[in-house]
Amino acid sequence: MSGQKNILVLNGPNLNMLGTREPTIYGSTTLADIEAACVAHGEVLGLAVTCRQSNHEGELVTWIQQARGTQNGIILNAGAYTHTSIAIPDALGASEVPFIELHLSNVFAREEFRHHSWLSPLAKGVICGFGAKGYSLALDAMADILD
Ligand code: DHK
């Protein structure tokens, strides 16, 4: 890896439904709009952003494994897998790629089962509660981390 820094923006289950999914909680911005904004904001920051979404834990694990040696950072909204998955934090540990955990909603203001994350102990930091804006905040933070 040399030259421009590569960032993977990874979204997990049900985030393909953004725009129509419980907009009072998750906002009305679609995932396509979020991804386009991430690529555009990445260009401003000098980061090459690749966006992927999957509803399948194993597919997310595979992409995180593939990030080793190819991506400089990961912005991860793992959706509900945040609260349930051991395989995803294991993959993040194995990949050795710095990552920022992200949630659109303020998970701490919601049901108790959303208060625990298996990802947070490994994350560089956590951004939650700022809706779609969180992704550009995460990219700003990642640019600082990688500087
Ligand atoms: C998204 C989900 O799908 C939930 O399962 C999480 C997160 C919160 C979010 O706020 O982006 O609990």
Features:
single chain, 147 residues, alpha/beta, 19% strand, globular, binds 3-dehydroshikimate
- Helicity range: 25-40%
CATH class: Alpha Beta
What percentage of amino acids are in beta strands?
15-25%
Coarse shape: globular
Ends apart, CA distance between termini: 15 Å
State Rg: 14 Å
Tell me the number of strands. Answer: 5
Note down, in words, how this protein is organized.
The chain has helices spanning 23-26, 31-45, 57-67, 81-84, 87-95, 133-146; strands at residues 5-11, 47-53, 73-77, 99-103, 125-128. A five-stranded parallel β-sheet has the order 2-1-3-4-5, with helices on both faces. The protein has 147 residues and is of the alpha/beta class. It is globular. It has six helices and five strands. The protein has one domain (5-146): Dehydroquinase, class II (Rossmann fold, 3-Layer(aba) Sandwich). The site of 3-dehydroshikimate has 10 residues, from loops.
Secondary structure elements and pairings:
Elements: E1 5-11, H1 23-26, H2 31-45, E2 47-53, H3 57-67, E3 73-77, H4 81-84, H5 87-95, E4 99-103, E5 125-128, H6 133-146
Parallel strand pairs: 1-2, 1-3, 3-4, 4-5
